[in-house]
Amino acid sequence: MLELAVLALLSESPMHGYELRKRLNTVLGTFHRFSYGSLYPCLRKLQAEHYVTADDSSAANRLGGRSRVVYTLTAEGKERLAALLGEGGPSSWEDEMFGVRFAFFGKTDADVRLRILEGRRGRLEERREKVRSALARTRERFDSYTLELQRHGLESVEREVRWLTELIETERAQAPASGRARPATTVGPPGGPPAETSTELSTDPAPPTPSDPGGNGNEAPPAR
Length: 224
Hints:
Layout: H1 2-10, E1 15-16, H2 17-28, H3 36-48, E2 52-56, H4 58-62, E3 69-73, H5 75-85, H6 95-103, H7 110-138, H8 144-174, E4 182-185, E5 197-200
Antiparallel strand pairs: 1-3, 2-3, 4-5
């Protein structure tokens, strides 16, 4: 989880540790809080695997200030990031990982986004049914407050399922048309109606017009 987040942020620009931790907590603070105790071991591991380089800030040294190590993504790191972003299996549907994957959906291919969203929805639908079954079996054993807590949890799951369904429908609507022809889409204004989609056909010149069917050997004039 942290490896993906660090590589994704460093793909935007090199950063020193303080800035990187700040960006992590800004982007993912709703789901996780990252400490230096977890960040720096991750950076050392990525450096050992040649996914990032670590360079002292020479400007700070010249000015007599505190030296800061700047971390930069390498070519191997970009390949590793692409591989991680291409994964859409069950681990990306879980609570701990889904928020991280969703935060970097802008860097993820559309088919992988859709696979993750559908997997997450399926996982939550399973959870919803388990909660419903548990409520039906144990309703008599719970006091009113415990029941309200259970209902609150069920409503939260149902709300996320609806949200995921909307996202899935949007992803499917934006998916490119299938087939051999290449879709050519004109982007409409934000909030406006969907743009019309046409199909680019061959641009080769039209075949010659056949001769006069009357057999007189005179060819028809070219079409204008």
